[in-house]
């Protein structure tokens, strides 16, 4: 299947810890390989940390696509996060994901959020 742009940012310890936490609580990130905002979300985590995230590819042409899961989640757009039964649309700051998921670890995230 199709894959998007490569993730160029490297991950720091805090990104790795947050990614492990999100996966441990069953959080999911929904997106599409062609979606520029989905790529921005991936870059916030960096390559190594995003590899740990439970990412659901929604476009049937994408690699390991699971469009039926995306349809079942009733998404408004991409990217979207499903955390503790709630869906959050759009690129999320790592600090916001930490808050939404009750993450208790360090928050010295290294990649700046792309929006003001």
Can you count the helices? 5
Span of the ends, CA to CA: 34 Å
How much β-strand is present in the residues? 5-15%
The SSE string, one letter per element, is: HEHHEHEEH
Strand order in the largest sheet: 2-1-3-4
Shape type: globular
The percentage helix is 25-40%
**Nearest-angstrom radius of gyration?**
13 Å
Q: What kind of sheet is the major sheet?
A: 4 strands, mixed
Would you identify the regions where 5 or more consecutive residues have pLDDT less than 50?
A: none
**pLDDT averaged over residues:** 95
Task: Explain this structure.
With 116 residues, the protein is an alpha+beta fold. It is built from five helices and four strands, in the order H-E-H-H-E-H-E-E-H. The protein has helices at residues 13-24, 36-45, 47-50, 67-73, 94-100; strands at residues 28-31, 55-57, 80-83, 86-89. It has a four-stranded mixed β-sheet, with helices on one face. Strand 3 and strand 4 form a beta hairpin. The longest helix is centred in the first third of the chain and has 12 residues, at 13-24. The chain is globular and about 35 Å long. The relative contact order is 0.25. The mean pLDDT is 95.
Task: Give descriptors for this structure.
116 residues, alpha+beta, four-stranded mixed β-sheet, 13% strand
């Amino acid at each position: 299947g199709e894959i998007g742009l490569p993730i160029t940012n490297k991950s720091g310890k805090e990104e790795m810890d947050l990614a492990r936490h999100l996966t441990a609580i069953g959080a999911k990130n929904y997106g599409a390989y062609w979606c520029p905002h989905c790529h921005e979300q991936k870059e916030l985590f960096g390559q190594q940390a995003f590899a740990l995230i439970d990412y659901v590819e929604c476009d049937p042409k994408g690699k390991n696509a699971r469009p039926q899961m995306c349809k079942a989640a009733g998404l408004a757009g991409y990217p979207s996060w499903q955390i503790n039964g709630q869906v959050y649309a759009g690129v999320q700051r790592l600090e916001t994901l930490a808050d939404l998921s009750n993450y208790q670890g360090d928050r010295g995230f290294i990649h700046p959020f792309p929006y003001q």
